[in-house]
Amino acid sequence: FNFFVLMSRQGKIRLSEFFQSYTESEKRRITKDIAADILPRAPKMCNIIEKGPYKFVYRRYASLYFVVGVPLGMNELIVLEQIHLFVEALDGYFNSVCELDLVFSLHKSLLILFEMFIGGMLCESNKREVLKAIVEAEEMVE
Amino acid sequence: MSTQARGLQNFISDLRNAKSKEEEQKRVDKELANIRKKFTATGKNLGEDGSNNALNSYSRKKYVWKLVYIHVLGYDVDFGHAEVLALVRSTKYSEKHVGYTALSLLLRGDDPMMNSILNTIRKDMTNPGPTSAKNNVPTTDTAQALALCSIANISGLELIQTLHSEVQHTLTAKSSTPCVKKKAALCLLRLVRTSPKLVTGREFAPHMAQLLQDKHLGVLTSSTSLLYGLASQNPQDYQTLIPYAVHILGMLVLKKACAREYLYYRTPSPWLQIKLLKFLQLYPQALSSGQNENDNGQEQHIVQLISVVSKILTETDVSDSINKSNADHAILFEAVNLIVTWGSSGPSQLREGAMKLLGKFISVREPNIRYLGLLTMAKLAQLEGTAESIKKHQSTVLVSLKDADISVRRRALGLLFVMCDTDNAERIVDELVAHLALADAAIREEMVLKIAILAEKYATDLRWYVDTILKLISISGDHVSDAIWHRVVQIVTNHPQGDLQAYTAATLLVGASPRRCHETTVRVAAYVLGEFGFLVAERPGMSGEEQFRILHQHWATSDAKTRAILTSTYAKLANLYEECRPLVAPVFARCKNSVDVEIQQRSAEYAAMREAFSPEAVEDLLREMPPFEDKKQSALEQRLCEKEGEDSAAVAKATRPSAAQRQRQAQSQAAARAAEEVAAQQAAEQNAINDPISPISGNPGAGPLDRSTVGIPKDVIPAMRKAFSNLCTSPSGVLFENSLLQVGVKHEYVGAQGRISVFFGNLSKTPLLHFRAIVDESDHLRIQKQGTTGLLDDGDDGGCSVEVRTQAKLLLLVEVTAPFDDAPAMRVMFETEDGELHEYPLRLPIVATCFMEPVTLEPGAFMQRWRSLEGQDRECQEVVKTPAGADSIDEEYMKRIAHIITDGLKFGRCAGCDPTPWTVSGAATFRTGSKDDNGNNINVGCLVRVEANPQAGAFRVTTRTLHPLCSKAVKNVALVSIKLA
């Protein structure tokens, strides 16, 4: 991945992580592109948009768009499932996740994100192991 | 943590309640100010590292979380780094945890703060901590995991690279837990991506093999990512690992051996499968090399690999669950990619199977699959022998071109571009053009570019190409870049065969006729009409005047760029058609005051040109443009490259020349050769005609001049021609003069020998340095040279210096050895005080007639010889008009002509042959210094006759000599002299 952005239907950013050094203005441009290109798309359209040097692969859950930017030549379908895997992990942790969970427990979702993806690459595809690691970490904090 | 972060919760609520972006911004600014205040340490609270010691663990964590939150929302956070580092240094896991997370998000690798934290990270990586969690102190592997994770996530890796040996060690150490290993693998990959030299394949491949045998699928997944990353940088080093990859694939696909947790909707770890397939794609030769070596082990894994791929191809089904179907198809597409990379070395049934599947995919409703089907089919189309089967799907692809989804349309366009060839080009391009009218702006530019390339590539008739581009302009002119219409001009200019140029001119004239048309049309029309308008000027409604009117109606609405093109076209029109001049002149007059410098300059120059230069020079300047160089890559292909990256299927396609192109190229090469021959012939003739009378050959300033050298100023050329012609018939005079230099010549001849003195006078205010005069040797003249010291030295730093108001002198002693018809060239080179290099290619007025000796013949003898010399190459004849403004031809005039023949050309008048005053006849002998077999000098008898036609104001000059060159030479000198009479 190059970056990972969660955006609400209204174009608000709920979570964002850039795995490469982008300058602030590049980041702003990317988020603007996402808002302009993805939000207006009809549900029947495909989940891949080409945008210059990378592709947006996105998936919509209720009113939340999970968008990742991948370099050309990535397998788009599996990226799509990667998003789903992440959502399943969030689901497992928050017990049927909703937008509010993400808003108020940003740090938790970040932990899950970091546990699953390192430097933009999938690290663990077993969500049970991911959740176990998170729970262990929490136990240690307590 | 929910209890700890009450403040954080409130802050988030506040932000959520914010009604507008401005309100949110205000709240964030307030919070930032607050945090800044809290973090600002004073007095004894200032810690060594710049953090505020007064903060307790809870509030430090809280504020750092707030910063993280603000950062994630997209605001700039540029302080608080000291507090983050304090958290990382902490021995408590809860603090370290927050610290590392914030570190990954807030800090960039090039941050100066990074240095101070390096040691802490290194310690976390290597120091053994307690093995079980006690008192909130982190265990080794959790600390390692945290450290690795943030190393990998921190963007900008310059500083972190120092840690790579620790990372590598952690990855390969036996003691590392799977959880740490998989993170270390990805972390290392991240480092290697930034600086590829960190890991060398030879050393690391064995470790890699070890990792690939790990039982833990998480570790395997990460390791395969690392393997793919390393191998794509340096495939050779990791070739030995192919069997491992095939083995894992075999386990997953054939035996479905996979831990339950790693099944993803019943598919065994699709991520791992895809990464392995990607790794195998790096080795397109894998199949063939194995067969050559005939190695058993190799053979075995190739068999296994093929059965894996065919199983993936045959057993992938559409399933109810979208997730399962996605995962399976993801693997399937990767397998097809693998087949594509194998190309013809792979089994053909796999290729056919893949083709059949893709054919199915591009017609399914599910948009993702269709998108990828189109994409992958475009890749497959690059393989030899697939074109036919792909063409069957043409109509399906055309349907996708009209899809509502821009991504699908793009890919359909891409596939159409790739599958296009000479057979279906017309259909596809017409279809695309038709669709262009409906296409939305986002895709138009790409479409226009691709249509233009296809039309050029596969046009069997270039007129169709021109039509297509014109259609593009009229449908979507704003998206037709300059490169596209420039290409039209290039192609039309470079293909003079057939009626393409006339056709284009006529079509564009019609295209530009409406009052309203796209500016690009005006530009192409202006350019093409300027070049080839004359080809259609005879047709009704297309005369020069009408061409001007049609173009000029757009003047008011055109921008500066178009006007500049129009200005040049007008100049060309005015040059060709007398009737256009009064129309064009006011335009130039007005534009002389244009605010645009380019237009101002052009119109001023064009307006003044006619007075300033000789008609020949004007003709030269306004001549048609020479053919363009055939560049390997057209500007359009370059654009395509920029847009799609070098390795895309479309680019590979575009750069391959099509059959039509090759054919055209061959044609135009043949035509160019033919043209060259004709041109060479013409040039030879031209030279012969022009040379003795023109002081410089062909183009002014041509020759071996580099850019920094100043040649002969254009404005002195007419004067020079005249001076040269004069000197041919008079014993002394000025050959060349400008503000710096005057070249004077004095010459006298006896028989075959001559003595020529050349004087170079410095007219400038400064000395002329490195002054050199180089006289070219020629076959027909023996030349002895003497001159001021250094003058004849042809070295760069040779030459003499000519002081102000002094002269350098050159003395030439010549003897003619054979008939000739040109004049020896002399290059004069010097450098002015301020370093400007000057080089003037001049010609010395040593022409054939200089060596004539008059012969007086009786009329009868003259007529007898005259008749005996009648014949093709012994005779030269040309008609010359009296110069405009000269007196009408009367007896006085004829006396001057006779004078030229006797004194200038050194012929003996044969008065008896001229019964009327309107003819002048003369005879002479051309003496050479060569001896014949008997030891006598070879001489050539020459006869000349000038007949005047006073009514037409013209003279006919006829020369008859024993030698063709002599005939030509005498005629030429006679012509120029008569012109000057």
UniProtKB/TrEMBL annotation, chain A:
Classification via Pfam families: Clat_adaptor_s
First-listed, main subcellular location of the protein, grouped into a coarse class: membrane
InterPro entries on file: AP_complex_ssu (IPR016635), AP_mu_sigma_su (IPR022775), Longin-like_dom_sf (IPR011012)
Key word Transport present: yes
GO cellular component labels: cytoplasm; endomembrane system
Domain AP complex mu/sigma subunit intervals: 3-140
BP GO terms, sorted: intracellular protein transport
Keywords: Membrane, Protein transport, Transport
Source species, domain of life: Eukaryota
Subcellular location: Endomembrane system
UniProt keyword annotation of Protein transport present: yes
Family per similarity comment: Belongs to the adaptor complexes small subunit family.
Protein name: AP complex subunit sigma
The organism of origin for this protein: Fragilariopsis cylindrus CCMP1102
Lineage: Eukaryota, Sar, Stramenopiles, Ochrophyta, Bacillariophyta
Automatic annotation (TrEMBL), chain B:
Organism domain of life: Eukaryota
PANTHER family according to UniProt: ADAPTIN, ALPHA/GAMMA/EPSILON (PTHR22780)
Residue stretches making up the Clathrin adaptor alpha/beta/gamma-adaptin appendage Ig-like subdomain domain: 732-834
Compartments where found: Membrane, Coated pit
Family affiliation: Belongs to the adaptor complexes large subunit family.
Location of the region described as Disordered in the Swiss-Prot/TrEMBL record: 626-709
Molecular function via GO: clathrin adaptor activity
Gene Ontology biological process: clathrin-dependent endocytosis; intracellular protein transport
Cellular component, GO annotation: AP-2 adaptor complex
Binding residue positions for a 1,2-diacyl-sn-glycero-3-phospho-(1D-myo-inositol-3,4,5-trisphosphate): 6-7, 38, 58, 62-66
Domain Clathrin/coatomer adaptor adaptin-like N-terminal, first and last residues per copy: 24-609
Principal place of residence: membrane
Keywords: Coated pit, Endocytosis, Membrane, Protein transport, Transport
Keyword Heme: no
Record-given protein name: AP-2 complex subunit alpha
Domain Clathrin adaptor alpha-adaptin appendage C-terminal subdomain span(s) in chain numbering: 851-972
Keyword Transport: yes
InterPro entries the record matches: Adaptor_Complx_Large_Subunit, AP2_complex_asu, ARM-like, ARM-type_fold, Clathrin/coatomer_adapt-like_N, Clathrin_a-adaptin_app_sub_C, Clathrin_a/b/g-adaptin_app_Ig, Clathrin_app_Ig-like_sf
Topology term for the membrane: Peripheral membrane protein
Residue ranges, compositional bias (Basic and acidic residues): 626-643
Role this protein plays: Adaptins are components of the adaptor complexes which link clathrin to receptors in coated vesicles. Clathrin-associated protein complexes are believed to interact with the cytoplasmic tails of membrane proteins, leading to their selection and concentration.
